[in-house]
Predict the structure.
Amino acid sequence: MKIRVLTAILFTAILIFGISVFSQEDVVTVEDSAFTERMRPPVPFKHDEHNETAGIDDCAVCHHQYEDGKLVEGESSEDKECSECHASEGDSYPISLVKAYHINCKRCHLEKKSGPVMCAECHPRN
């Protein structure tokens, strides 16, 4: 009986450890602290799954970095919220936050002829 209990405890510990080691923290919605009032629901977005499916290896494809209006090659802004560079709605410098998401995501989806481009395809009302 003791062996079974010890085996069960050991198996559970290995299972919990294995899951935590191999699981990745993945973004599940597009979030930014600047979005205080929403016109539409947040966009469900599984970051790692999206990038794997789309074949995106370079973080700067989405998390770009500009300096003096020019793209800085080899630099990314993945440690920042998009609103740190893209102003809130109503302020258009350099590009408003909502417009930046729409331009970046929709442009890529249209170029690749894959992915949602219509409002309700990204912002489900459920």
Observations:
- Residues 2-122 form a domain with the Cytochrome C3 fold (CATH 3.90.10.10).
- The chain has one domain: 2-122.
- Helices lie at 2-22, 47-54, 97-112, 119-122.
